[in-house]
Every structure is written in C-alpha cells, then in structure tokens.
Amino acid sequence: MSRIFLINIICLLLSTQLIAQSFVKQLPKSKNNLIVIAHRGDHTIAPENSSMSIQNAIKDGADYVELDIRTTKDGQLVLMHDATVDRMTNGMGKVRDLNFDEIRKLKLFNKQILNPDTLQIPTFEEALKICKNKINIYLDFKDANVQQVYAAIKNEGMENQMVVYINAPNQYTDWRKWVPSMPLIVSLNKKVKDSAEMVSYLKNIQIDILDGDWTEYTPETVNAALKMGVPVWADMQSPNENEDYWKQGISLGLSGIQTDHPKELVLTLKNVKKTN
Q: For 166-189, how does the pLDDT look when each residue is reduced to its tens digit (9 = 90+)?
C-alpha cells in the first residue's frame, strides 16, 4: 500500500468521525537537543533488530531505537524487519508461518561478528527489558495485535518510553481505539509542497509526529508542521552519512533524525553545539 493511499484512508476515517476525540500526547524525554533515532538499532557491528544492536544504540547515546515488530504463528512477538526470515537468518519462511520455537533456533547473520552463533531473534519482551530506563523505542508496527503489544509495554512499565509508526489504516484505528494516549507517527504525504498545504494536511489528520524521507521536506513545511505542534523526525539513512550530510537536515529544522550511524550523529550534534 502506498503511503499516499494510507494517508487518504486515514483522513477519510477521520472525516467520517470514526475517530472523533482529540488527545494531547506527551512525548518521551530525550537526551539530545535533536532526537537521534537508531535505525533498527546500531547495526554497524551487529545484526539489525538484535539485542546487540539495541545495546549498541544505548551505548551510543541515541534517544530512540527503531525496532520492527512481528508475530509468530503461535502468537509470540518478535523483532524482524522483513516479512520473512530469509535475509537475516540461516532459515527460510514467513515469520507468521513459523512457531516461536522454530524462530528461536535460527541464527542472525552479521559479517562483522566472528561468532554469531549466540545471536537469536529477540522477543519484544526481551527488547523492552533491555531498553527500560535507558532508551526510548520507536516501534515500527509491522504485524501485531495492539492490545497484546500494549499489555507487554504496560507489564514493563514503559508506557512513557514508546512511540509507534503505523503502516496501515487498521493499525491507526486500533491504536486510537485501545491506546489513544500513544504518540503515533506517519510518513509525509509527498503532495505537501508549502506551508499552506502542510497546515491543511495536518488539520485533516490526528497525528503526533511526521516521518518520511528528509528530501521530501523544506524549511517552510517543517516550520509549518512545528507551529501545528507536530515535530518532523525524518529518515536520513544513507551509505553517505556524515557531518555535512546531517547538517543539511539540521538546517531544515528537523526535530529528529533517523540514522544508520547513531554514534557518529551524536558526536556531530555535540560538535555543532560547541561551535554555536
């Protein structure tokens, strides 16, 4: 489903008053002036979405670790970006078609690690325990049940350390229905070209944070969103990430940057702060 179609569906739901009530969200506290989001953890020297990549992001001083959640055949919550385990493990098949015991027998791949045999696909509960009071979670909601996920979050007392990125209209309606206080994120509709369009866009959608590729934004649209109370946390993952590259995002007025190199971005922000 295209992001534009997703946004249009959400706007339709709002216009038909399936979701009528507005809620004020409190975003999790952050360490850095500009929010640093570690894309699938710091996977420069660890497999993405692994316990090690989460621990690396914590050591880096990132504000959020972005994690992808899916559900096994027998209803267990695990971390995996792809719908299948083919790319990241020594196994094959869709996560939804594999039982948890089968998932746990698989080994995560990473060329930079000499002995990967101890690395397994983590459960969501394991990730919560690692992150608690150390780093916030930017949850990319791939394939899971809202009530089950929120029960796990509440069980760890991490309601105030979570934001959720939605990928489908039913996810939006379910989160708004069951957990209206949860900050939700969607990617920007590419048709938004100026401040007037951004204001109109945000008036028609009950959302808390905007995401999307950083090149889709301008200083004008970022500023308009911020005036509406909606920060922009843009994707800047790239093979060419460096200080000059990130400074372009800073110049846009972004409130947050999602990166594949969180350690280096944190250091860049410290350097920028020193020179100002």
A: 999 999 999 999 999 999 999 987
The answer to pTM > 0.85 is yes
Residue 89 and residue 109 in contact, taking contact as beta carbons nearer than 8 Å? yes
What residues contact 145, with CB distance under 8 A and at least 6 apart?
71
Domain at 7-14+25-275, CATH homologous superfamily: Phosphatidylinositol (PI) phosphodiesterase (3.20.20.190)
- Helix, strand, coil percentages, rounded to 5, for the chain: 40, 15, 45
The residue to which tokens 């002036």 are assigned: 33
Give the residue extent of every domain in the chain.
Answer: 7-14+25-275
DSSP 199: H
Q: Residue holding tokens 């999602």? A: 258
Residue 63 CA to residue 140 CA, distance in Å, equals: 16
Query: CA 251 to CA 219: how far, in whole Å?
Result: 8
Closest CA to 223 of 203, 199, 201: 199
Report angle CA 192, 197, 200 to the nearest 5 degrees: 120
